[in-house]
Amino acid sequence: MTLALTSLRRDSAAVDSTRGFRHRALVSIPLTALATDTIAIAVTAALAITGRNRLAFFEVGSDVSGMLGVVGPLMFFAWIATIAASGGYARSVFGAGPDEYKRVVNASFLTAAVVGVGCYLAKFPLSRGFFLLAFVIGVPLLVLGRFALRRALHKAHRLGVLQHRVVIAGRPSHIDEIAAVLDRESWLGYRIVGAVTPAGHVSTTTASGIPVIGDSADLACVAGGAGADIVFFANGAFRTSDEMRRAAWDLEQHRTQVVVAPSVTDVARERITVRPVGGLPLMHLDTARSAKASRWAKRTFDLFGASVLVTVLSPILVLAALRVWAFDRGPILFRQTRTGRDGVEFACLKFRSMVTNAEELLATLHAEAGFDGGLFKMKEDPRITKPGKWLRRFSIDELPQLFNVIRGEMSLVGPRPPLPAEVATYDDDMRRRLRVLPGMTGLWQVSGRSDLSWEEAIRLDIYYVDNWSMMQDLSILARTVGAVASSRGAY
Fold first, then answer.
1. pTM over 0.90
2. Which InterPro entries does the protein's record reference (predicted)?
3. Minimal CA–CA distance to 257: which of 218, 221, 222, 230?
4. The domain 163-265: what is its CATH number?
């Protein structure tokens, strides 16, 4: 432990220099967002004026450019100021979560209300066409600009740029849990540089290999020597709340941010409410949302969406059917028994992408690959036919499942439909996947498909079940297009 801390202190000057650069770079993110918003609003102004003067359904023959010479700049300055007042440039909102978008959108609506009421009270004849176009165009442009900035920030984090140096304080077991999440979500930009354990812990590393660089009694000094930007307080870091408060005060002197990480994982933000009571922040967790995923709204969306997709994709369906039949004159569809909601079995439809005796060859492949349970996939499966490779590359083989959706056996979005043999091995936790309809796509598909481990696929499915929302479904459908186009994990 002492050697690890000494090694970190040797290059403290380099760490301080790097931290100063990192701090300046992170400070520039809100300024970049301000520049992005300014450009978006300037483009909005130009488009709104042009549209007002040229679109046929607005009053023609009147150029509003002159009238907006004073009010226009004031309106857009107020727009930026309202975003700033709403916390749209606070460093904490960038990188993750919906807060950034919510603040921008809410500030835009507030600006529209203030401008509308202000012009009415002042009896200023602001062009209604310009007013309408400004906010109809401006809000999506602002959100799109923030989205592009976030994608660039995530890419920088994955490349190791603009990362926060993190020290985790707590019991080794909880330290490893938090570290696993931070490593998995590399786009967050957290780089773990060491762990701090309670006094008396003698190991030099945690079970996952994170170096222990000190104990919690000297946390501020240890974090400073490691050049930490953020210290995570995990379970077991302190014996009393007074110790934790004093440690936070000490870290405050070093300008080190404190993050409290409770023993709660895989819970969506929408299910969490923090309510301080007598100075004690109580975290309230809403019940799991699996029941909401079975309501009529989702079913209506599935039925409508699947019907539209069958109509639009009918030429591809016909072409795929012809290619499968022409290859070996065998069956076009492959019907496999899968387990649906509440354990009800159904015939899951796919275009046949393998040879007709694929099931007979499965036992041999299991033995050759040393398969011992879970989801069996091979990158070079010899059973796949030539048209089957094309079908699988773009997930065309799964399009017949649209008819499973129409029949109510599946959903457009949901957990992967498991085989009955898989379900027979489920424990109580894994059976939560069966609380909702299985889906044609889901978090497992947009997160890597066959490249995922069995444990990771299960974790994502359970997360979906517990944290379902219609917005999440729409997001997964949008991300599915990119996952299918890139053929990531498709084999």
1. no
2. Bact_transf, EPS_sugar_tfrase
3. 230
4. 3.40.50.1980
